[in-house]
Amino acid sequence: MKNKIIMFWVIVAIVITSIAVILLKPTKLGLDLVGGSRLVLEAQTTDQVKEITQEDMSHLQFAIEQRVNKLGVAETLVQQVGDKRLLVEIPAVTDLKEAKAFIGETAQLEFKKPGKTEKGIVSWESTGLTGKDLSKAQLTTDSSGQWVVSLEFNAEGAKKFAELTESLVGQQMAIFFDGDLQSAPVIREAIYGGNAQISGGDSGFAYDEAQRMVDLLNAGALPVPAEIVEENTVGPTLGADSVAASKKAAIIGLGAVMIFMLLFYRVPGLIADIALIIYSLILFALFKTIPVTLTLAGIAGFILSIGMAVDANILIFERTKEELRAGRNLFTAINSGFDRAFTSIFDSNMTTIITCVILYLLGTSVVKGFALTLALGVVVSMFSAITVTKNFMHLIFGTGELKHPGLFGLKKEEIGESYRAEETKREKARFGILD
Amino acid sequence: MLNIGRKHLVHVVKYRWLWMALTALLLIPGIAAMIYSSATYENHAPLKVGIDYTGGTILQYGIEEKVTNKDLTVIREGLEKQGIENPYLQILNVNNDQQKNTKSEIQSIISVRTKFIDKDSTDGDKITSVMTEQYKNPELMSVSSVGPTMGKELFKNSLIAMTLAFLGIVAYLSFRFRFDYALAAILGVLHDVVFVVGMFSILGLVYNVQIDGLFITAILTVIGFSVHDTIVVFDRIRENLRYYSKKMSFGEIVDASVNQTLTRSINTSLTTLITLLALYFWGGVTTRDFVLAMILGIAIGTYSSIFFCSMLVDFWNDKQNDKRKEALSV
After folding, report:
1. Which CATH architecture has domain A109-215?
2. In sequence order, what are the residues at sequence separation of 6 or more whose Cβ sits closer than 8 angstroms to the Cβ of residue B37?
């Protein structure tokens, strides 16, 4: 009995922790619920780039990150998946076309020449030389060991650059990235051959500064073209509707299952209902702690798991009822109900977990969300339906006689009419059978 | 015969042929629909497959009035005039009380499916302009696009996932039970999968329902649940065999075990169906077909674990006994 009381308080502690986590931590909602864009980009080979290397991918990822960050949205994600794909997630977009626009253009890098000077402020003029003309930028050092940024133009770019520098000797030339002035080196002499260096002036570049510039320049010109191979964009209205609908479905589903259990199993049903609430609390707290991003499919997995979580309880209670019908005393019936149902519960849950693991490993991100929530649900339900319910059953019913079979939804006449399996001594010991 | 359990409600062994006939009756319409679809569809698929597997783009517009099928004809003409080939249109009606929380005025959602719109195409803008001509403030609610190569890859992955799930379950069951039990369970799973796929094949023919990436997830969940149900019955057969194998015939043990687990089988399916029905009627519009696949699968899974799988185990056992007798008599 002492162990059972300790266990009871452990359960209480877990519940309190779960509630605290639920109250304190934010829920991570997926893009299909908050609205947003999820894109899968695939790097394309070209005549120049016959094979996509890991280096190309890192450059592409950086370039796309730069552009995505320019959208000014929090919590964006750019991640490489597989050998030549990038997953891009942009939450809370309101204009469904805006998110996609960043992938199309490659000309955010611009070279400009000084125009009119008014009140000491130079206004820069476009020269027609842009990121499209750049083939790549690299971080190197010059003869004095200073960090410099080496630029390499393509054929057309080299020609334009030569003409531009010829006309700008002794003047500044500005490099703009997405409309921001990045640097404005002074052109010392005309540059032919399509190669150029940007040095950091008298003080030189710090390594970080130069590296950033290289990255930005490379970002201007996508190292390889990228195509959108998959897109899922959900507007905020649909997302909000889905959240509201899911909440409603969850409440109705949970409520209906609880009423069913109460009507069919009476007092044990009530205990199962409490266990089910504890189950939902623990699971939800786990979602927030891990954190699991909740998507529509994930919520469907969660709601489905409510139906499945009571499965273990139904198995146990059916078995307990059977043992009571066989005329066992209450304590024994409860114990053997749990012990004998356990192998069924374990085996059947294992198969669900096997399918979840396969779904998680092979599925798309939507499917992954479903598999993860369902698998977590199965694991937590093993705890809530077995440990929690067993504990409460013993605390409530104790070791006494079953005076009112109605508490289990049984009729008095049914008791003792059923068969009873003959156990060996070892099994009797295991089930705690006293008679 | 010993009194195992109360009076038997179902007789699996006695009416073996009845259950076999019922199983055939359940499966044949779906199989027929699959064969018909494979023969008539362009891509020879047994089901109507959505953009996840074929590639394509779906645009969904929220409309602030009730849309009827007549409207769709007008929109289709408008789209074809703009050069959008074979657009596939569908109306999703929105549950009115859903918007109370979000205060949106949207009454219907029109979904337009076309071939894959890549980033350089202006087809998306053209479709939006047709919508704007027809309705006041159509809201572009969602865009999903899958490139053609991606679709093939998803299809391949889905098949791999299915195969692995089958193998994983066979391996686990062979390890925990006897191999013939595992085989019966897997045949039960196949039975359920064929039923659900067949039903969706019919739905595809009659209501144009298309399967998407989530369908495969639903099928895998059904597989898990179906095995889950079957295991409980088999577990009971295994247990009863230990105690009664000398006093009762195998068939009697199977019947008794099925009846002992009957309430449980029905009740767990009921609770799961309750939650799924809640999702179907009150949940998100986009997951409705996914939920429907699971509802069908879980209902048939309960039938198959009670009648089909246990019948198979008994049938198998009978055949084995016949062989043994033959061997003895020779």
Report:
1. 2-Layer Sandwich (3.30)
2. B45, B46, B47, B48, B201, B204, B205
| B31-71 tens-digit pLDDT | 999 999 999 988 888 888 888 888 888 888 888 888 888 88
Q: Do A300 and B139 touch (CB under 8 A)?
A: no
Yes or no: say if A229 and A38 are a contact pair by the CB < 8 Å rule.
no
With H, G, I as helix, E, B as strand and everything else as coil, classify residue B218. helix
Report the distance separating Cα B27 and Cα B21, nearest Å: 10
Paired strand residues for A36: A91, A234
The tokens of A255 are what? 């409520």
Question: Do the Cβ atoms of A316 and B264 come closer than 8 Å?
Answer: no
Distance from CA of B40 to the nearest CA of A (A): 28
Is there a contact between B243 and A421 if contact means CB atoms under 8 Å apart?
yes
> What pLDDT digit, counting tens, does each position of B92-122 carry?
776 655 555 455 677 888 888 888 887 667 7
Residue A344 with chain B: CB contacts under 8 Å: 231-232, 235-236
Residue among A238, A261, A323, A357 with most chain B CBs within 10 A, to mutate? A238
pTM (two decimals): 0.78
Which residue of A lies nearest to B233 if distances are taken between CA atoms? A344
The type of residue at A394 is H
Percent share of chain A, pLDDT over 90: 13
Where do we find the tokens 């009530």? Answer: A270
Using an 8 Å CB-CB cutoff, list chain B residues near A348.
Answer: 227-229, 231-232
Residues (pLDDT < 70) of chain B are 1-7, 94-104, 119-120, 330
Nearest CA in chain A to B3: A419
Subunit contact A231:B145, Cβ cutoff 8 A = yes
Q: Can you give the pLDDT at residue B5?
A: 47
A210 vs A68, A70, A170, A191, A223, CA distance in Å? 22, 20, 23, 21, 19
Give the ipTM of the model, two decimals please: 0.83
For residues B286 and A288, what is the distance between their CA atoms, to the nearest angstrom?
24
Decide: B142 and A234 in contact? Cβ < 8 Å: yes
Q: Going by C-beta distance under 8 Å and a sequence separation of 6 or more, which residues neighbour residue A412?
A: A405
| CATH 3.30.70 at B56-145, yes or no | yes
Kindly list the domain boundaries of chain B, sorted by start residue. 16-44+150-329, 56-145
Contact B147 A227 (CB under 8 A): yes
Domain boundaries, chain A: 2-31+235-431, 32-105+226-233, 109-215
Considering only CA atoms, which of A229, A208, A266 is closest in space to residue A85?
A229
Q: Residues A416, A29: contact at Cβ < 8 Å?
A: no
From the candidate CATH numbers 3.30.559.30, 1.10.3210.10, 3.40.50.720, 1.20.1640.10, the one assigned to the domain spanning B16-44+150-329: 1.20.1640.10
The topology (CATH level 3) of A2-31+235-431 is: Multidrug efflux transporter AcrB transmembrane fold (1.20.1640)
Contact across the interface for B147 and A370, Cβ inside 8 Å: no
Residues 216-255 of A with CB under 8 A from B: 227-235, 237-238, 240-242, 244-246, 248-250, 252-254
Say yes or no: do domains A2-31+235-431 and A32-105+226-233 share a fold.
Answer: no
Instruction: Report the DSSP beta bridge partners of residue B59.
Output: B112, B143
Half-sphere exposure of B176 (CA within 13 A, CB side): 21
Q: Residue A422, class by beta-carbon neighbours within 10 Å (0-12 exposed, 13-18 middle, 19+ buried)?
A: exposed
Strands (E) located in A217-275: 226-234
- State whether residue A354 sits within 8 Å of chain B by CB: yes
Q: At residue A4, what is the residue type? A: K
Residue A228's φ and ψ, nearest 5 degrees, are -80, 120
Residue A342 pLDDT class (50, 70, 90 cuts) = confident
Nearest by Cα to B290 from A166, A296, A407: A296
